[in-house]
Amino acid sequence: MIILLYTVITLGTFSLMELVTWLTHKYVMHGFLWYLHADHHQPKYPHVFEKNDAFFVIFAIPSILLFYFGAVPELNFMFFIGLGIFLYGLTYFLIHDVLIHQRFKWFKNTKNKFLLGLRKAHKVHHKHLGKEKGECFGMLFVPKKYHNQYK
Hints:
Residues 13-139 form the Fatty acid hydroxylase domain. This is Beta-carotene hydroxylase. GO terms for molecular function: beta-carotene 3-hydroxylase activity; iron ion binding. The chain is 62% helix and 0% strand. The protein contains six helices and no strands. The radius of gyration is 17 Å and the shape is globular. With 151 residues, the protein is mainly alpha-helical. It has one domain (1-108). It has helices at residues 2-32, 34-37, 54-69, 77-100, 113-126, 144-147.
């Protein structure tokens, strides 16, 4: 029974992270922390790292703390919340940095309709170079119209 509970906590946290990501992207990254996110909206950013990469650290801190406090003195639910955050972060890295922005050339020839829809929605998001007038702030759940373009 405890394995089922920990699985539900992990998957629930993973799912909730999409909402957290959407809200953070719209109101924090395109809000008061725009100065960290602005370079990400510049075409062909010339450096290996962007200031925007600081958000990976910002999101990793709660996950690391939850791993620690979820394992000490014994395994508890906080570990699995941290695991859900970590798994979402890993997925975000693979979708956003690898698939969409091609920072690593691993999945550049995909024909998957879902992945192509995510890539298209993110390109629409990046057509706005400023912090205003943004759209498609999520990462895994985007409007169906972007997926339906690929039949």
